[in-house]
Amino acid sequence: MVGIVIISHSRTLAEGVAEVARAMGVGKAVVEPAGGDSEGGLGTSIDLVEDAVARADGGDGVLLLADIGSSVLTAKMLIEDAEGERILLADAPLVEGAVAAASMAATGADLPAVHAAAESAREHRKT
Amino acid sequence: MTGQASAGLDARGAAAWIRRAAELVSAEAERLTRLDAAIGDGDHGHNLHRGFTAAVAALPGDAELGETRPGKVLIAAGRAIVSKTGGASGPLYGTALRRAGKALGDASEADAAAVGAALKAALEGVQELGQANEGDKTMVDALAPAAAAYAAALDGGADLAGSTRAAADAADAGAAATVPMQARKGRASYLGPRSTGHLDPGASSTALVLRALADVTGRE
Prior knowledge:
Number of strands of chain B: 2
Strand content of chain B: under 5%
Largest sheet of chain B: 2 strands, antiparallel
Radius of gyration of chain B: 16 Å
Shape of chain B: globular
Number of domains of chain B: 1
Oligomer: heterodimer
CATH architecture of chain A: 3-Layer(aba) Sandwich
Order of helices and strands of chain B: EHHHHHHEHHHH
Structural class of chain B: mainly alpha
Structural class of chain A: alpha/beta
């Protein structure tokens, strides 16, 4: 199954998004949070993100969702470093993208399908 | 060796650059944070102080510096900055130093042309990662003119010291030119026209890092 990693500046935000996404992934989807900096404050830690990717990776690839700024840059940098490994970043809103990705991942879909599901979340308008 | 002002950049020179950059960034940390508080999230000086302090701590010891390569020193410094910085400047400065280090390859001493190629590689890495162009009110507004000025000085016959000085001067001017710009990247971009009238903190810190390079290559 494709794993999902939620990268946020805030540890509690990453955990909360992961909680919602896991529920929408009917308990099957693997969603790992990577929130905050290396000292427990607001920010991004590439080491925490790498740990979360390792936990989420079941062999079918990992999809990253990131909130803003350094979360996005860290995700892109990690992908560049992980040459050849199957890791993608979704260009998607964090909560909606995570819910869409977890729903699709729970069906056993492959990484491109989970990535596409996450990015399709952009089109779900609220008004 | 870095004994002569016009010599190349060896591992000791690269380490001296990182140490000098850390000194300048730490000395200016409050000013950078104040600039960032105006249009960003108010942590730039603190973050870079933390990142460059970690980079200095990651430098090889004196005996090892005699054996290693300047490229390796910059790559290790970049890695430390990525791990410890916490904000967007971590991946950006980390990428800049790592790309510069990779561009220097395995040479034990980088000549003036190689340092110019490393600056260009750093700029390309930063633009690839951050997707910023000149005029977006980012560190690119200091780094791009610096790389161009370096190349022009070198073409005009300047040595390493002269070329790095030209780069640092161009970075200062480029940073100053960000004041009237409207930000198109990062938190400041949410402010639209309200982001004008402020010096960009990333361009300012980039100018400090390039000044540090000019300082160490210009030493007798």
